[in-house]
Amino acid sequence: MHALETQGQLQIRRIEGCQVRTYSPKASEIERAWHVVDAEDLVLGRMSTEVARILRGKHKPMFVPHMDVGDHVIIVNCEKVVLTANKAEKKIIYNHSGYPGGLKEKTFADAMELKPEDTVRNVIKGMLPHNRLGAQMLTKLKVYAGPAHPHSAQSPQPLEIEHARSRQK
Q1: Residue 154: how many CB atoms within 10 A of its CB?
Q2: What is the pLDDT along the chain (169 residues), one digit of tens a residue?
Q3: Is the distance from CB of 89 to CB of 107 less than 8 angstroms?
């Protein structure tokens, strides 16, 4: 039975006994774009949240939390990323081998000097789901320390993240 309710100028049709189905996109409906982010003078946390949002697919109208519908992201110049409030020296990264006394620590600046790609990738990995789905999303992230990348055949579109621009200059 259909009931028609009026709320102001909006009419709502209610169908009794009918269930609304949850939309789940098929694999053939998912279109993946390629984005390139120039991380030079970008604040690491602000850039990372935007990249994690694109990897998850939250910017798309067909987003569902149980599927990987996100796009590919290429980050170049990750060695020139900026941390605010002197966090590069204050922030400590811990690793544990699993054995007694196996706790190792280093500052974020030291980690960025050794392997800037892995350091930026780990920051973004922490913002994705911590399960197999998050690991699958992380495979769509490509991080490079310099300005060059080998993905020009995919014709990536530049992704501008203006709110992540550093104000120190």
Answers
A1: 15
A2: 455 455 555 555 556 667 767 778 999 999 999 999 999 999 999 999 999 999 999 999 999 999 999 999 999 999 999 999 999 999 999 999 999 999 999 999 999 999 999 999 999 999 999 999 999 999 999 999 999 999 999 999 999 998 888 777 5
A3: yes
Residue 41: inside a domain: yes
Q: Is residue 8 part of a domain?
A: no
pTM higher than 0.90: no
Strand 72-76 and strand 141-143: pairing? parallel
Structural domain count, the chain: 1
DSSP secondary structure letter of residue 47 = H
Domain membership of residue 3 (yes or no) is no
Q: Report yes or no: 93 and 111 within 8 Å, Cβ to Cβ.
A: yes
Residue 44 one-letter amino acid: L
In CATH, what number is assigned to the domain containing residue 159? 3.90.1180.10
Domain that holds residue 89: 31-164
CA angle 140/71/153 to nearest 5° reads: 75
Q: Which residue has the tokens 């609304």?
A: 20
Check: CB of residue 71 under 8 Å from CB of residue 33: yes
Domain membership of residue 143 (yes or no) is yes
